[in-house]
Amino acid sequence: MQQQYERYYVPAQSPWPIVGAVALFLIAVGAGNTVIEATNGESGHGGKILAVGIVALLVMLFGWFKNQIDESMSGLYSSQLGRSYRQGMSWFIFSEVMFFAAFFGALFYARVISVPWLGGASNNAMTNDVLWPAFEAMWPLIQTPGGTTTQQMSAAGLPTINTIILLISSVTLHFAHVGLEQNKRKQLTIMLGVTILLGLAFLSLQVEEYIHAYQELGLTLQSGIYGNTFFLLTGFHGMHVTLGTLILIVLFFRILKGHFTPQNHFAFQAGSWYWHFVDVVWVMLFLFVYVL
Amino acid sequence: MTKATETLMPEHTAAHDNLSHEHDHHEHHGAPAGLMRWVLTTNHKDIGTLYLWFAFIMFLVGGAMAMVIRAELFQPGLQIVDPNFFNQMTTVHGLIMVFGAVMPAFTGLANWLIPMMIGAPDMALPRMNNWSFWILPFAFSMLLGSLFMEGGGPAFGWTFYAPLSTTYSSDSTALFVFSVHIMGISSIMGAINVIVTIFNMRAPSMTWMKMPLFVWTWLITAFLLIAVMPVLAGAVTMVLTDKFFGTSFFDAAGGGDPVMFQHIFWFFGHPEVYIMILPAFGIISQIVPTFARKRLFGYASMVYATASIALLSFIVWAHHMFTTGMPVFAEMFFMFATMLISVPTGVKVFNWVATMWRGSMTFEIPMLFALAFIVLFTIGGLSGLMLAITPVDFQYHDTYFVVAHFHYVLVTGAVFSIMAAVYYWLPKWTGKMFNITLAKWHFWCSLISVNVLFFPMHFVGLAGMPRRIPDYSLQFADYNQWISIGGFAFGLSQLIFLVLVIKACRKEGEPVTSQVWEGAEGLEWEIPSPAPYHTFETPPKVK
């Protein structure tokens, strides 16, 4: 009567979640205090608490992943558990999509509603007359109603090069994945290495672009809604590329150690999904922040 | 609806486990002892218990703040606290009750019940489950700690509208922002765990349309959580950069708009409202059939109604903003979309009533709370329908009528459903029947006092008493005294519940059978009471 099923691995007690909770607590308290101290020009312990929190988070990630890798390598995981991980990762990426959606929402709201309305569109002629009669709606908003001026970041040049870099990196990562599935380890290693280099190239060009924006265009985080959306969208995207690159680097070293098989490579798949997601976000960014 | 075969009788399970124990050194039966059991645990039942206790403690803390509010409002004029502290109390009361009490209580119930209801050995990602929980005590100690900072804690209302939260807020806003961030991380991880558990861990024959409704409603709730908690994170991030880094998302001088804050916030906020009520619908749909001794009327329509409510929740957010000067077509759209929600909600209420129709009803404690829920939640739903009508909302907006409305749906709705759930499943968790005398006292005291507390708010609200103000015009004095007396009585009534739960946790009371309630059906009623530390290590057969 009793059917035979693969046992679902339920781990025993683990110290890492509580370390992670304490780490997030220190990061939150540290970041909050750092912001407050920086604004008031005080000296305090915010930065130190933040640093300790980040170190604790890294220790947690290292320990937790080491546990999981050991468990996976010793064959404790069933295919059902693999499905849990894959589904979990997909929903995590969905949550990231919604995070970016909030900032894209702010961008569209500014472009379609708040800036035109301040210029008198829809039934807002009086808004314009009473608040800032001299203000004319435009996008990019290079002169705010309050009078801050800036210049537009052109889509040509660095942003286009960066778009090409990221698109190519998605292709190389795909070929790395194909290499893994067909057990061509050399193709896997080379293609993954190239992807990592492309990621790093993207990041350094992004730094270049920020320097250009601040020093030559006068486009800063304080330049009104155009600068706000520009820096928050590209900034959060850049943080995600950084994280994605770190994930790929970890995968690279695991591959050098001989981890992953053509059938069994959840971590690689998750990292690859994450990278493709970050790439898609960039395409949206390139379209709506730079080109259109 | 679902039944396990004899292969899952307790004796058999025990024997089977003893055998497999010798072969499998990864087995870890029984609960470890000591404090570290709770800190390091990966067991869904332990984590469920932690969530429920945390939620209860937060319910009492947030309730204490409500007592401060009601003490101040007992008489017109300023007498007990200064207005800034009053504002902090209304703000933190709201934040604590939403994020610290109701949501963690539902997550605790999900942890305890979903694996047992679908025949899974545990949640899909047990370590992440522990992490989700343990973030919360830290996040809330941070939020509560900010009350003691120079300049005070958050005082801008739980909705933290800009510019109150940007231009006019205290420094502690930075701590508020980061504590919301880590609460969000906790909720998202918890929701991912629920979804993956339901998708991937169901016993092989537990098909979608055999799933208990509590599982269905939580599946849809978890989807809503993953969809909107990141938007909340975006909103608090923009508040942070507006306040501390010179951005102007919510400042017209820089091309932004304070109303944009409300759009982003309520895009999160309205689905959030359903996050706090859909699991309640699930609970009531479990309890009513048991005590009516009939199958749930319209099971499939319940599932579709839940999904419809969830989808509609994404297109109604601006009904919170009718007075912000939106174009008329937007007001019309949001009014009609909102009214549309009453259709699937009406389907649910109809189905509960139809389930009871000609049933063999008995009125045990969980059923009393469920019945109170159905009646009082419907009152809250109807006042919501009134608020949805744009032209009259101009009169009701920001008055005590709104306060009455959302307390009917949240206190006599969500909170009553949680209490119903605790009474329903507590014997399964502890193996002992709770103290029924105390439970009756708790129910009747709560039921009477909660209506003395919230019903007169409709009247003072319609008469124009504004919310979130520590003083009021003299003509509202009588009603406010009634409201405050009701509030204190409701607060005290919850201490009865505290005593009852402590006694239950100390395993006082008569032992119960596996089924506990005569009409109860479902996998969780076929395992022994108290539920063993590990259940369904191999999947059960579901009929």
UniProtKB/TrEMBL annotation, chain B:
Protein name per the record: Cytochrome c oxidase subunit 1
Recorded metabolic or biological pathway in which this protein acts: Energy metabolism; oxidative phosphorylation
Keyword Protein transport: no
Entry keyword Cytoplasm: no
GO biological process: electron transport coupled proton transport; oxidative phosphorylation; respiratory electron transport chain
EC number(s) stated in the UniProt entry for this protein: 7.1.1.9
Gene3D superfamilies in the record: Cytochrome c oxidase-like, subunit I domain (1.20.210.10)
Record-annotated membrane-spanning stretches: 50-71, 91-114, 134-156, 176-201, 213-240, 260-284, 296-320, 332-353, 365-389, 401-426, 438-459, 479-502
One Gene Ontology CC term in the entry: plasma membrane
Membrane topology (UniProt): Multi-pass membrane protein
Main location: membrane
Chain's role: Cytochrome c oxidase is the component of the respiratory chain that catalyzes the reduction of oxygen to water. Subunits 1-3 form the functional core of the enzyme complex. CO I is the catalytic subunit of the enzyme. Electrons originating in cytochrome c are transferred via the copper A center of subunit 2 and heme A of subunit 1 to the bimetallic center formed by heme A3 and copper B.
Annotated keywords: Cell membrane, Copper, Electron transport, Heme, Iron, Membrane, Metal-binding, Respiratory chain, Translocase, Transmembrane, Transmembrane helix, Transport
Catalytic reaction(s) noted: 4 Fe(II)-[cytochrome c] + O2 + 8 H(+)(in) = 4 Fe(III)-[cytochrome c] + 2 H2O + 4 H(+)(out)
Source species, domain of life: Bacteria
Subcellular localization(s) per the UniProt record: Cell membrane; Membrane
Pfam family, one: COX1
Domain spans labelled Cytochrome oxidase subunit I profile: 38-543
Gene Ontology MF terms: cytochrome-c oxidase activity; heme binding; metal ion binding
Signal peptide range: none
Annotated organism of origin: Alteromonas confluentis
Top EC class, one word: translocase
Similarity annotation: Belongs to the heme-copper respiratory oxidase family.
